[in-house]
Amino acid sequence: VQLQASGGGLVQAGGSLRLSCTVSGVTFTTYATAWFRQAPGKEREFVAAHSPTGRRIEYIDSVKGRFTISRDNALNTVYLQMNSLKPEDTAVYYCAIARTFGTAWQYESTYSFWGQGTLVTVSS
Which pLDDT belongs to residue 12? Predict the structure, then answer.
């Protein structure tokens, strides 16, 4: 199983970035997908999750209205569109997948496979 994340970079506050994560080695349509992030000196935290069918989509409060998680099942890819970026969004962003997340969508232990991370830096 491989998860290949990309799309990170340096952006000014107020700008936008779109992260991508392409998954191989599993039946993508049976997995929930999520993004986590880890800021310098902090623990990794949940950002957003998307159920296989899209019936459940969850966000951490601090990104609601600014970030959008989506997926293209034909391309085995999950995206994180990030708008109105703030310096506090600076972090390494990780994609992850799980067979199911139920009510535990925000916990790292729910997710079986992880990508390598892509760095997002937001300058003020």
Answer: 98
